[in-house]
Amino acid sequence: MENKTAYVSTCPGDLDIAQEFLSQRGYSIANAPIVARDADWPLFMSRHFSKLPECECIYLFSGWQSSPRARIEHALSNELGLDVIFQDPCITGDKIIEAVCNNFKLHPQKLQRNNHRTTTHISMARQLTDYLIRLHLKLSLEEVAYYTSGSHSTVLHSIKQVNNYLQTKDIIFIPLYQAVCEDLLRQPAASKTRVHTHAPSS
Length: 202
Hints:
The chain contains eight helices and five strands; from the N terminus they run E-H-E-H-E-H-E-H-H-H-H-H-E. The chain is an alpha/beta fold. The radius of gyration is 19 Å and the shape is elongated.
């Protein structure tokens, strides 16, 4: 696995969760995000900030916006063009559709079930779209169906199929599923920064 380094924000958070998430994706942590006494703050932060240029991404805990340290870290990581991984997701239906289409190499119109030209690849993309929208947006089956011009029954079938793919570790589906989950929220937060979130567990 590729050796990559991550900077973990110094704002309060569960370091074990960050370490597990990052290690699963091939990252080692470049800094030790322990809380310093107020008197040590300038020295502490200067040592931490010096690690940022060495890293590919920064991991921000929930509530980072209320931490002056984390806001500085976020601004610096933006200037350096680092990827940003937020502990808490902010996922929309449109972003799910974009992530699915990018990884399945499909035009968004192909996800619509009124588009009658269907292949196994397209069906799999529709099913994953339904599944992720249901998972993240907590919508009713009818509301989920709106996104792919489906119905209550087609969404139920999608959820069943995706769960089956995950349980059987389907060799075609799993890499696509993982790529979509990694790409969710990979939208430009600023001119240089890419944004990520935790991938949902099966």
